[in-house]
Amino acid sequence: MKARLNKFFRWLPNWVVYLLAFLWAAWLFYQAATGAMGVEPINALERAYGELALQFIVFGLAITPLRTYAGLNLIKLRRALGVTAFFFVLAHLLVFVILDLQSLSRTWTEIVKRPYITIGMLSFLALLPLAVTSNNRSVKRLGAASWRKLHKLTYIAALLGAIHYVWLAKGFQLEPIIYTVVIVLLLLLRVDFKSRFSRPI
Fold first, then answer.
1. How confident is the model at residue 71 (pLDDT cuts 50, 70, 90)?
2. Which of helix, strand or coil describes residue 35?
3. Please, what is the Cα angle at 196 between 191 and 197, to 5 degrees?
4. Residue 28 and residue 22 in contact, taking contact as beta carbons nearer than 8 Å
């Protein structure tokens, strides 16, 4: 079963991920535009895009632990998942700026005034250079080692995104906390505690 799954993931083209993400984003937008998302469609669409962004970030973070502990190799799809995560973060931001606030000056005021929006914007800024360099030309120009170091900004963006989600939630909501716990656990799985604590002092 594991071998069949790995064969399928090696075969699966990246464009399938992009196409499905675009279609899902378009479907959500259509639902919001036609009133299928309730009495506050803009807020519902904004939240839906934000949650999808976090989900794709989680999928991307899970690739290495899945290969290490479960033997599932999804490395081929990691870049597509990362770009798709940025796509949904950008969609989340555009809905907030264009449809919700409808003003760049108000956007800047909200970023400065509300800490949870500040955190969300910092997460977006951390993802921006990763999206720009998610191509083979950038890997060659930066060098593989430097490119990998740069893309560790994903960890910071993931944590900031989780904090943003927890902070904006009104009252105690379990879902944002679950996302945060999962992200922290996935990051901890990447730490080689054995080698760290076995180093001579």
1. confident
2. coil
3. 125
4. no
What is the rounded distance in angstroms from the CA atom of residue 51 to the CA atom of residue 169? 12
**pLDDT above 50 (res 91):** yes
**Number of domains forming the structure of the chain:** 1
> pLDDT averaged over the chain?
89
Helix axes 14-33, 78-94, angle to 10 degrees: 20
In a domain, 123, yes or no: yes
d(CA 173, CA 160) in angstroms, rounded, equals: 18
Q: What is the domain extent for residue 121? A: 2-192
What is the DSSP track for 159-173? Answer: HHHHHHHHHHS-S--
Q: Which of 126, 114, 132 is nearest to 158 (CA)?
A: 126
**CA-CA-CA-CA torsion sign (43, 49, 55, 58):** negative
What pLDDT digit, counting tens, does each position of 9-31 carry? 888 899 999 999 999 999 999 99
**Residues making up the chain, counted from first to last:** 201
Token representation of residue 147: 């490119």
